[in-house]
Amino acid sequence: MRYLLFPIFLVLFSCQKETKLDLVIQTNAIYTATHSSKAFNAIGLIGDQIKVLDNYQNLKKQIGPETKMIDARDMFVMPGFIEGHGHFYGMGSSLQNLNFLKDTSWADIQQKVIDKTKQSEKGDFIFGRGWHQEKWFTQPENAVDAYPHHQGLSDATPDNPVILIHASGHSLFANKKAMDMAGITTETPDPAGGRIVRNNAGESIGVFEERAKKPIIDLYSEYLNTLDEIAQTALWYEAVELAQKECLSNGVT
Where are the beta strands (DSSP E) in 194-235? Predict the structure, then answer.
């Protein structure tokens, strides 16, 4: 009897269900970050752990009805990497504001600002970053040194201070509302180490370089400091969530 039960036990054991994978990623290019030169085109996970790195055909038997499938065959797949010098909060903060890095005209930037004011309360600051005059296919009207004049945007945003940081970080644009609130007038002198860009009439066109930015930046900082603790905390958490989403979507862990 003992010898009869042994093969039955083996049959029953071999019939047990193989553990199914929770997630399978198909891809044409996997960088494993190891010295192995072996090529793989599928990754299998159980929970949050990689359990299988193999060819997709070999993984099929471990795919069940509840296995989530991701088709990444047009993408490059690699382990997440650790960024040791990222400005995490700064990234999130930038994602809360208008982004002009890909805009190729001042008109497009103006429209983004105008659209934002329509979604904002009167008096709210409109803040953005990333514009660069050398990316524009045409110069704005009344430009000085290829910089835009504030008049058109000021007329469209009379109730909201607008501050737009240059892609280099070395200059900024401000509309009339922001300049008035910062106390900038025709008589305001250029500070040491800075320049208020002016037209032939000596009037500020709304662009401030280097240390001339300070009154405008201080104005925005004062505005943020007027927010109550709940509002400031909400902004901080939102920035962190946005930064986390951006990092993880690009494989930065």
Answer: 194-198, 204-210
CA–CA separation, 123 and 183 (whole Å) = 16
The hierarchical CATH code for the domain 2-77 is 2.30.40.10
Greatest CA separation found in the chain?
A: 110
pTM beyond 0.85: no
The domain segmentation of the chain, as residue ranges, is: 2-77, 88-242
Q: For residues 193 and 244, give the distance between their C-alpha atoms in angstroms, rounded to a whole number.
A: 37
What would the pLDDT profile of 118-160 be if each residue is shown by its tens digit?
A: 999 999 999 999 999 999 999 999 999 999 999 999 999 999 9
What is the Cα–Cα distance from 126 to 112, expressed in whole angstroms?
Answer: 10
> For 69-82, what is the mean pLDDT?
83
> Any residues with CB less than 8 A from the CB of 43 and at least 6 apart, and which?
24, 25, 27, 30, 50, 52, 53, 77
Joined together, the tokens standing for residue 122 give 């009167």
Tell me the fold of 88-242: Diaminopimelate Epimerase; Chain A, domain 1 (3.10.310)
